[in-house]
Specification:
Blueprint: H1 3-161, H2 166-313, E1 320-325, H3 331-348, E2 352-357, H4 361-369, E3 375-378, H5 380-389, E4 393-401, E5 406-414, E6 429-432, H6 438-450, H7 455-458, E7 461-464, H8 468-476, E8 482-486, H9 487-495, E9 503-513, E10 516-520, H10 525-537, E11 544-549, H11 556-564
Helix pairs in contact: 1-2, 3-10, 6-11
Length: 567
């Protein structure tokens, strides 16, 4: 084997190794960035959890205080209900005793009523008998008058008889005296009877009034007895209620004791969780810091690899072409979707291809300027920017996707934000792809300015997330309120199983010219023509379906928008 062939083989293996390293490093960078995003979300979540745990701990402390107060109240309630129970028992006993006494008094009143009735009846009888006595006295008085009259007649006849009538005259005189005494006695009796009758009448009136008052007293006693009966019944119900309340207070005390035990356990758990969340939060933050250090190391490694690529490029054979691609999507997707097409077209032209992913749009321009790479796959705006500084490239082909050599730029948000128009974006967080991205920056900024929104002034925060995939993910996860992307990135996300049902398209810019594949002018004419011919003949059903010839003037629309927004 010739020495030159060995060197050529070594150089090829070196270039292949560098190519693989570029892909692996960018894939690692991509994954690490995803990991960093995840850790940022975790850190944010743990920060929220920590705050919630602190709040939970504070709430648990408040609950403990409230439960202690509740236990105290329950104990006091139990004591007070026990007192109330005793009081109602005493009142019930008093009411029963009073009811018994009133019953006895009522019976005595009933006996007294009988006596009063008998007295009234007796008085009525006396009054009636006093009338009969008066009639007798009248008869006696009449009889006394008759006797007195007979005595007078006898005296007259005795006088007429002379001596013979003297004895009769004496008798007559005695009869007259007896008649007078009878009359006087009757007068005294009548007077006495009248006094007795008046006294009996007064007694009757007093007795009648007393009887009436007694009847009222009896009625009042009946009402009072009813009141006492109702009061006793009420106290029995009160006693029953206080007994129930006392029983409930005892049960309540048992429950509060259990609550106290549970709340103490919750308090201790929340305290442990709070301390644990602080520890985990600290660990996550430490890991975040380490991730950033690893990212810096990988970035440094990538720069070193780029320098190695610079030196290794000079070792490539005349039949090898190195393609540079900017990181517009996942490196794995680039390698699986884009690289096979480039490799196939190069082989059709009789060349072997290499592909390296550069870390930014500007880096691809620099690599072409320094001829570290021979060709580049530019996004449309990056191509326009590159043409302003590079005079050593020529556009070759533009890919066709979904039957179009153009695409639609979107400004998207999540349904959960409640944002329904571009005007609603003021004061919100917005995610762009890259300052050199057409749909991911240029046209979206133009659309915003047309609506009177200045991204530099009117947004709460502006983030450049590096890729369309990152923008879509950030919108769905709420890391930004809205973002700029394009239709194919959204379709690709759906194909990868990402749920995009919450995505709302706020604005659409139609027919942005697609990417430009460029070659260095120094490459052999024969390769350029065969490579172009291969791409223009490429056909497949999915993904990149084919290519059309790239015309520089097709990108004038981008130049116009760029001038309009003074970039």
């Amino acid at each position: 084997m010739e020495k030159g062939s060995v060197k050529s083989g070594n150089a090829s293996r070196l270039l292949e190794t560098i190519e693989n390293m570029f892909f692996e490093i960018f894939q690692l960078t991509w994954l690490l960035n995803e990991n960093i995003k995840v850790f940022e979300n975790i850190a944010e979540s743990f920060s929220k959890v920590e705050k919630l745990n602190i709040k939970s701990f504070d709430n648990a402390s408040s609950i403990m205080k409230i439960v202690n107060e509740l236990v105290g109240i329950s104990n006091k309630l139990k004591e007070e209900t026990a007192k109330a129970k005793k009081v109602t028992e005493s009142l019930e006993t008093i009411c029963k005793t009073l009811s018994s006494s009133i019953t006895t008094a009522q019976k005595a009143l009933e006996e007294q009523e009988k006596i009063f009735k008998k007295v009234v009846e007796t008085n009525e009888s006396l009054i009636s008998q006093s009338g009969a006595v008066s009639e007798i006295i009248k008869t006696l008085n009449l009889l006394a008058k008759q006797i007195n009259l007979l005595s007078l007649n006898a005296s007259i006849e005795a006088v007429k008889a002379g001596e013979k009538g003297k004895g009769f005259a004496v008798v007559s005189q005695e009869i007259r005296k007896l008649s007078e005494r009878t009359r006087d006695a009757n007068a005294e009796i009548e007077k006495t009877i009248r006094g007795i009758v008046e006294t009996i009448k007064e007694s009757f009136e007093v007795t009648s009034k007393s009887f009436e008052e007694f009847e009222k007293l009896k009625s009042s006693f009946g009402e009072f007895m009813n009141f006492i009966t109702q009061t006793t019944s009420g106290f029995e119900r009160v006693f029953e209620v206080t007994s129930n309340v006392h029983t409930i207070s005892e049960e309540m005390l048992k429950v509060t004791d259990r609550i106290e035990g549970s709340s103490t356990e919750i308090f201790n758990i929340s305290k442990d969780v709070m301390e644990l969340s602080k520890e985990v939060g600290t660990t996550v933050k430490t890991q975040e810091s380490k991730n950033q250090e690893v990212l810096k190391m990988i970035s440094s490694l990538h720069q070193t690899l780029f320098e190695i690529q610079r030196e290794a490029s000079s070792l490539r054979s005349d039949r090898e072409i190195i393609f540079g691609v900017n990181p517009f999507t996942n490196p794995k997707t680039i390698r699986e979707m884009y690289y096979p097409i480039i490799k196939w077209a190069c082989e059709k032209a009789g060349y072997k291809s290499r592909m390296v992913i550069v870390h930014s749009y500007d880096a691809l321009t620099k690599a072409l300027k320094e001829e570290i790479v021979d060709a580049g796959w530019f996004s449309p705006f990056a191509y326009v920017e590159a043409r302003e500084t590079l005079d050593n490239i020529i556009p070759i082909a533009t890919p066709i996707v979904n039957g179009r050599a153009s695409y639609d730029g979107y400004i998207i948000t999540s349904r959960k934000t409640g944002i329904r128009s571009l005007k609603d974006l003021k004061g919100k967080r917005f995610g762009f792809v890259d300052p050199k991205s057409a749909s991911g920056y240029l046209f979206s900024k133009y659309a915003l300015l047309q609506e009177g929104i200045n991204p530099e002034k009117d947004f709460k925060e502006v983030l450049f997330l590096g890729s369309h995939d990152n923008v879509i993910r950030a919108v769905l996860q709420g890391e930004v309120d809205a973002g700029a992307t394009y239709n194919e990135a959204l379709e690709r996300a759906k194909e990868q199983g990402i749920d995009t049902s919450d995505i709302v398209i706020l604005n659409t810019v139609k027919d942005i010219p697609k990417d430009a594949i460029v070659l260095l002018k120094r490459l052999p004419y024969d390769f350029v023509e065969k490579f172009k011919e291969a791409l223009l003949s490429f056909k497949q059903a999915k993904g990149i379906q084919g290519f059309i010839e790239a015309k520089d003037e097709r990108y004038d629309i981008i130049r116009k928008v760029k001038r309009t927004i003074s970039l």
